[in-house]
Amino acid sequence: MHAERRERTSLAVLADLVGGCVSGDPSIAITGVAPLNLAGQDQISFLANPKMARNLADCQAAAIIVHPSLKGCVQTPLLLAENPYLAFAKILTFFEVPPHVGQGVMAGAHVHADAIIGADVTIEPGCVVCAGATVGKGTHLHPNVVIGADAIIGHDCLLHANVTVREKSVLGNRVIVQPGAVIGADGFGFAPDGEHYCKIPQVGHVVIEDDVEIGACSCIDRGTLGVTRLSRGVKVDNLVQVAHNVQVGEDTLLVSQVGIAGSTVIGKHCIFGGQSAVAGHLKIGDNVTLAGRGGISHSVDGNQSLAGLPAMPHREWLKATMTMTHLPEMRRELKQLKKQVDELQRKLAEDEN
Amino acid sequence: MHAERRERTSLAVLADLVGGCVSGDPSIAITGVAPLNLAGQDQISFLANPKMARNLADCQAAAIIVHPSLKGCVQTPLLLAENPYLAFAKILTFFEVPPHVGQGVMAGAHVHADAIIGADVTIEPGCVVCAGATVGKGTHLHPNVVIGADAIIGHDCLLHANVTVREKSVLGNRVIVQPGAVIGADGFGFAPDGEHYCKIPQVGHVVIEDDVEIGACSCIDRGTLGVTRLSRGVKVDNLVQVAHNVQVGEDTLLVSQVGIAGSTVIGKHCIFGGQSAVAGHLKIGDNVTLAGRGGISHSVDGNQSLAGLPAMPHREWLKATMTMTHLPEMRRELKQLKKQVDELQRKLAEDEN
Amino acid sequence: MHAERRERTSLAVLADLVGGCVSGDPSIAITGVAPLNLAGQDQISFLANPKMARNLADCQAAAIIVHPSLKGCVQTPLLLAENPYLAFAKILTFFEVPPHVGQGVMAGAHVHADAIIGADVTIEPGCVVCAGATVGKGTHLHPNVVIGADAIIGHDCLLHANVTVREKSVLGNRVIVQPGAVIGADGFGFAPDGEHYCKIPQVGHVVIEDDVEIGACSCIDRGTLGVTRLSRGVKVDNLVQVAHNVQVGEDTLLVSQVGIAGSTVIGKHCIFGGQSAVAGHLKIGDNVTLAGRGGISHSVDGNQSLAGLPAMPHREWLKATMTMTHLPEMRRELKQLKKQVDELQRKLAEDEN
User: Which chains touch A (3 or more CB pairs under 8 A)?
Assistant: First the structure.
């Protein structure tokens, strides 16, 4: 259970919270956040895109979060912030994410006598915490979460319903896992014996560092012998596959339905678009962006924007795909040109004789 | 638990059920449905595709559901129906889907004292229904389903094992959810602060209207501030991703592994083939069909059939992809032609001198 | 719970286990397995790729598994094996996978009085085994597994946490299912009635034969009337979709995020790369390899290697995609050539006059 959410504060307090300035009456009361078109007279709204400033005129909000360049654009009091989207996130958190209040191990949860449970946790009905597992202080396990033997969950984590964390997995602090995600399943490793496949036991584990978030039904496989690692601040969307022994660098984003094959090492601050993929045993530099549905099949240096399969610079891909629909026409023209050139050659030969 | 399924009826009753006519003896007894090649002498079978009529000769079935145009094609009694496939669906439902008989809250289920539980429900062992949640009359929760706080489940719904419905989600009536699906997980929203990402709390919810079906391990994310909506009659296959703030129109089909990015609005009666995708913040008209693996990256009008990435009219895509394998040959020919044309130009210049 | 893992043996015993020979002292003690760069002085390591033999010099391992052709390449004792990777798998299994020791039905598990439970099983807390289900001897159900009514689970199976096996599904022996997988969900079958869709009840079932492994959050749908079958030895990675009525032949591999559409029949010893797909109602021969992201839309004979969408021979696809980036340049050249040829034709006509 959560404590009651914050119900009312002044515009001045919110400006202070986000390091911004007030333009207008700083004492006006704010009770929550809403979109521009829905905000009521005691709510704050925000304008992420300055191009949409014309929409501000009809806004009923008590105040609007905008970039300082828009100061004076409307009568409504403004909260001027260099990064309005970030300010919005922080104010939304202030109103809507109350601190967790531990309810302890609730009736219907199964916590092994040899598990180590920190202070102020909530472990809801149907959870199973196996022998040797650790659940850090302030962590909240929603119903039917399973924590395998000897797994370690840090403090202030939030694991939603039906999440599975297999044995020996290690989660840092403030890790959030959406429902149905699976951490530490066996990687896909089989040795052919000429006829059948022999399973290679997957005896490594998974390390999820601080401030990582993992989406619903995403799968982070354990290492074969070593470790699969999501570094600090990595954000993983829903239905993403991270195979065994993969390493993902800090603050990298994996959007929905991405697949990262085994043993690949990905740098920091990368963004992989939806349904994109990276083959196995590759090295991807820092600050690489791969467009949705892109596929990387060779190691690539950092600081570039790629698209397509096989992945190429995003601009080249845009040009190539724009030409795609002209392919049949190009083929016809090519045939026609060949005829014309043959005819020209024939004529010229005749003329010469 | 379900009641016993229907065990025996006459061909006449079945014809009545589906609004069809009998050709042959209407009193013959039917005990069930089976495919043409497996049907026994007391079962009814069906022919969806008239081109397969030659297969009817060897059929042992008591009767066959066919289109009226096939009347008299075999000796076997026929059930003549304008839409044989639909008639098959209804007769299969008659024999195989008995009405739900509520077993109440079973031992081992955890239902919060503040939850509202309708009449004739079945809530199986391991289910957790949180505070403030509503479960409508006649609804069946299979084992280990989790219903979050203040969620509302309509009447006559069927939620299979290990489904998660997060807080404040709203499901209509007769909604079916296959095992492992997740409704109401947080959308993928993070504001960059220049170095790291700050989570944007996802405080909206999900609305699933009447007669929607959601496949196994599919994920329907909650809105950021507002609503993610699947309209009446939408059918979602397995492992599908529907991101935050998406709106899907009535009777639209999302086939397996489809991904719909955030805030996109999809019309009615669309069909998205397997592994296809739509980018975020787009508007897709009614009656749009997107072939498997297609990818839409711009808003599109209704009433068209698309394919490819980026999506183009299906026919153009077929032509373009058929040309694909000729690309290396085209490139060679182009080089050859350039040589020939250069040579011709050279010769012509010589001749002129 | 598992018994303690094996802790110490001699190199000779391991050579015997894998049918290999010792080069060096056969009596040296081995306590486990580790990668070349991490192995300690009492561990065995392995060299899968002979090209990496130069890495052996610095290896601290007690012994190394290598191909017989590398005999004598270093001072370290060697275990010579024709298939070093397979020998590694077997030795890793010897040390790390102790035999299962049945703990019985544990407190907090819900096993129906009419279920049939074999000897030496472990059924962990939160599991639900429904009426008429069978759990074979030696099988281990991790927490919160749900076994539907009349399902049959063979002996020595291992079902990880939060797995769902729906009613009437049949699993053979030694089947392994990773967390969150769903076996026997309804296939995606709806009959249009002109306006809406009418659900076609999915009353068939799933058969999983011996020695199959299924990855985390993968979905194997039940047949509509008949059977969906994964034959002996099939290995399925995470987040894979196998639709209703599909048949997959022995020892075929489906890598992560693959989608197989309904009623398709796949041969033996095939390999489908990550995110690849096969359309419905097709027949795929034995020994077909489809590269990652490939898509098969027509039935194909066996013994070939395919790639691309639509799938073509892998070599052709490589050539075609290499040409892709040259498309815009080709189009420009084509236009230029047309101009030149037109000019030549004009000149030639002039000359002739």
Answer: B, C
Identify the domain containing residue C57 by its residue range: 9-96
Boundary (domain end) residue, out of C96, C121, C149: C96
Number of structural domains found in chain C? 2
Cα gap C70→C89, rounded to integer Å:
20
Least confident of B177-186, B277-286, B323-332: B323-332
Q: Which residue has the tokens 């998660």?
A: B164
Residue C352 has pLDDT above 80, yes or no: no
Contact B269, B284 (CB under 8 A): no
**Cα of B39 vs its chain's centroid, Å:** 28
Largest CA distance in chain C: 104
SS3 assignment for A185-199: CCCCCEEECCCCEEE
Q: Are B218 and B166 contained in the same domain?
A: yes
Other beta carbons within 10 angstroms of residue B125's beta carbon come to 24
The complex scores an ipTM of: 0.95
**Cα C45 to Cα A53, A153, A276, B226, C80, distances in angstroms:** 64, 31, 35, 56, 12
Give whole-number Cα distances, A177 to A118, A141, A145, B214, C257, in Å. Answer: 19, 10, 10, 22, 20
Find, among A256, A178, A252, the residue nearest to B186 by Cα. Answer: A178
Active-site choice (B2, B110, B244, B298): B244
CA distances from C177 to C37, C117, C120, C214 (A): 32, 19, 19, 5
Q: What is the DSSP secondary structure assignment for residue B81, as one 8-state letter?
A: -
This prediction's pTM: 0.96
The reply to whether B332 touches chain A by the CB within 8 Å rule is no
Q: How many CB pairs below 8 A link A and B?
A: 191
Residues C288 and C173 in one domain: yes
Picking from C264, C229, C233, C236, the residue whose alpha carbon sits closest to that of residue C250 is C233
d(CA C45, CA C57): 13
Same domain, B92 and B189: no
Cα–Cα dist B227/B169, whole Å? 9
List of chain B residues whose C-beta atoms are within 8 Å of the C-beta of residue C272: none
Distance in angstroms (rounded) separating the CA atoms of residues A326 and A315 = 18
Distance CA C78, CA C65 (A): 6
Give B185's DSSP letter: P
